[in-house]
Design goal:
alpha+beta, Immunoglobulin-like, 4 domains, 6-stranded mixed β-sheet, 29 strands, about 25% helix, about 40% strand
């Protein structure tokens, strides 16, 4: 019981760090082994004095109180000696990060961290020769209990936890026995901060993750794996390739499961160069690529519209590339894809037709006199790849002008079909002479989407009404003049 009480007292005293005994020197806190040697010498002197005083007491030469006083001094020197020893035993341990490896399992990324411990005090190496071995076994200086490890992003101000579980608890970390913990990455990164809490302290270290080459693949991931695309347009997928192989020969880039009418190419996002294969430069473990799909302008029946088309993007080594050649590339099955030992990602394309409206007018310039109106026939043609519905044509006219459209609504214009609309524009009475603009605006829908259209502008030139009296007088004057010339010529020839 007394031994356990003493041990508890020592454990409470040890974390205080500073040593305290009769001939205490402040530098003993820096050179702990020398301080412990000084405390040991004092303890041994006190022990010899106690033994001498005990012999004197047995002979009856001193009182019991004198012996008790010397025993108390000896016990105090023993406590100081053991406290100095504990300052070495419980010197702040150091937890080392032996490895931090990023690997892929299925579609998810993981990090495997291996930790081990070392005592930062070199004085602890010779401690076993100075302290009783039984006490050392009880104190367990080769163990670090309750080590808590978490994975954070590399933000300079202490990032958020990005590993699951959020925190790993290692009950005991023993010297010479590394411990491995595993986290699932909640965010795909290459640099993380490993936070370890132990012995009342927290250590945050920023590390660049090593890639596990045992998988022997280059993984492929997509930021937007499922997209829609209108016929006649280009759809772009951003891909992230990550190297989990020691092979430096590079990989071949391929696409499988895509209909032949849809063309594809891989591009470098920086230079926009087209790529068919990719190599990782020394020290580079991840690269970005663009997969661009070009959809045909018209549906040729080779693939369905408004239905998702699954396909795959591959990063293949030489063996996997040869295996893909042997398969039907435009009709790959999920089982065939699973059998390919390569980096791959499943993508999805939803092709949609799109309606396009072309507005034609036989004449966009009209000359009228005051009191007349304009009647023109407009042709609305669908040049897209989907039927256009609810086509409305409206005329934006100057103030006080009137307009009408017949019919005011065209229910549907099929692909390559057309509809004719009659537009009537009536200027007000007494409209001034000059040029006026009438804008023809078209609204239409295609699969509940607004169709982009181009407005047409009709220029109207208003002239004043003709003056008939002046015109008749001018004609009569011209006839009289011509008649006079004829008569004069006739008389001149008779002479």
């Amino acid at each position: 019981m007394r031994a356990w009480l003493l041990l508890a007292l020592l454990c409470l005293a040890a974390p205080l760090g500073a040593q305290n005994y009769g001939n205490y020197n402040p530098r003993d806190d820096q050179y702990r082994l020398l301080g412990m040697t000084r405390a040991q010498a004092e303890y041994e002197n006190a022990l010899r004095e106690y033994q001498r005083q005990r012999e004197l007491r047995e002979r009856g030469l001193i009182a019991e109180a004198d012996l008790e006083r010397v025993r108390t001094q000896m016990e105090g020197a023993r406590v100081n000696y053991l406290q100095a020893a504990l300052a070495i035993v419980f010197a702040t341990p150091h937890v080392l990060i032996e490895r931090a490896v990023k690997f892929q399992r299925g579609e998810r990324k993981f990090v495997r961290i291996t930790l081990r411990t070392e005592n930062a005090s070199a004085e602890g190496v010779v401690l076993a020769d100075l302290v009783d071995s039984t006490l050392l076994r009880q104190l367990r200086p080769d163990e670090v209990p309750n080590v808590f490890v978490s994975l954070k992003d590399d933000s300079p101000n202490g990032g958020a936890i990005i590993g699951q579980p959020y925190e790993h608890r290692i009950p005991v970390l023993r010297f010479g026995e590394p411990v491995t913990v595993e986290f699932r990455l909640l965010r795909d990164v290459d640099v993380v901060t490993i936070s370890a809490t132990f012995a009342g302290q927290t250590s945050d270290r920023r590390v660049f993750l090593e890639k596990d080459a045992s998988a022997n693949i280059v993984s492929v991931q997509a930021a937007q794996p499922s997209q829609e695309g209108d016929l006649g347009t280009e759809v772009r997928y951003e891909l992230q390739l990550e190297r989990f192989t020691s092979d430096a020969s590079g990989v071949r880039l391929e696409v499988g499961g895509l209909p032949r009418d849809i063309r594809y190419e891989f591009r470098d996002p920086t230079s926009n160069a087209r790529l068919t294969s990719l190599r990782f430069p020394e020290g580079v473990t991840s690269q970005r690529l663009i997969l661009a799909l070009t959809l045909p302008a018209r549906d040729g029946g080779a693939f369905p519209l408004d239905r998702p088309i699954p396909f795959w993007a591959f990063a293949l080594d030489a063996d996997a590339a040869q295996r893909l050649v042997e398969l039907a590339r435009d009709s790959l099955t999920a089982a065939e894809v699973a059998g390919l030992q390569a980096g791959k990602v499943r993508l999805e394309l939803l092709p949609r037709g799109i309606g396009r409206i072309e507005v034609r007018a036989p004449n966009l310039y009209h000359e009228i006199v005051r009191g007349d109106s304009i009647v023109t026939e407009i042709t609305v043609r669908n040049t897209g790849s989907r039927a256009v519905t609810n086509v409305r044509l409206a005329a934006d006219v100057p103030p006080d002008w009137r307009s009408s459209v017949s019919p005011d609504l065209v229910r549907e214009v099929p692909i390559d079909g057309e509809a004719r609309v009659r537009v009537t524009v009536v200027p007000p009475e007494g409209v001034g002479v000059g040029d006026y603009d009438v804008r023809l605006r078209t609204d239409a829908l295609s699969a509940a989407r607004q169709v982009d259209t181009e407005d047409k502008t009709v220029r109207v030139r208003v002239e004043p009404p003709a003056n008939w009296a002046a015109t008749v007088g001018l004609v009569l004057l011209l006839v009289a003049l011509v008649g006079g010339v004829v008569v004069f010529g006739y008389r001149l020839t008779r002479r």
